[in-house]
Amino acid sequence: MKKTLFLIILFISLFTIWAILSCEQSAQPIEDKAEKIANWIQEKVNMGGYTGCTARVIERGNPGVVQCDLRFPAGTDTLTVRMNVKGVAESFAQAGRLASTIYYAGYSGSQSICEYKYDCYTGRVTEKY
């Protein structure tokens, strides 16, 4: 009887310790990759003399949301802005699945011309306006 009671108490103790340890591991936060993605996009786009890209995190989480603004000089043709912004968005979409939803906005001076959205779940780029 003592041996059985000892084994039951030992089992309950070990189960309790295991349950506590597994809860602590699952409570660890998931890595937020949005900041890394924003910095990576800005670094890659601002090359070759172009410095008009600013990328920032607008919502943290898993997945995060990144806003990427591409600014062109005032008077730049709207078709040129659209094609460049769409090209940037599709290039990064083809690089592989990114762990954030990304909005790419194109500006001619201070005038907003277009916006494209990269959906991290589907891996597709869609035109917002």
What do you see in this structure?
The protein is of the alpha+beta class and 129 residues long. The chain folds into two domains: 1-30; 34-127, GMP Synthetase, Chain A, domain 3. Helices cover 42% and strands 29% of the residues. Strands 1-2-3-4-5 form a five-stranded mixed beta sheet, covered by helices on one side. Helix 3 (78-94) links the parallel strand 2 (64-72) and strand 3. The radius of gyration is 24 Å and the shape is rod-shaped. The relative contact order is 0.13.
Q: Which regions are unreliable across 5 or more consecutive residues at pLDDT < 50?
A: 25-29
Residues in helix, %: 40-55%
Name of the level-1 CATH class of the largest domain: Alpha Beta
Q: How can the largest sheet be summarized? A: 5 strands, mixed
Count the E strands.
5
CATH architecture of the largest domain: 2-Layer Sandwich
**How many domain units?**
2
Q: What would the average pLDDT be, to the nearest integer?
A: 84
Global Rg: 24 Å
Basic shape: rod-shaped
- Placed side by side, the strands forming the largest sheet appear as 1-2-3-4-5
Structural class: alpha+beta
Q: How many H/I helical runs?
A: 3
CATH fold category name of the largest domain: GMP Synthetase, Chain A, domain 3
Q: In percent, how much strand structure appears in the residues?
A: 25-35%
Secondary-structure element order, as H and E? HHEEHEEE
Question: Gap between N and C termini, in Å?
Answer: 76 Å
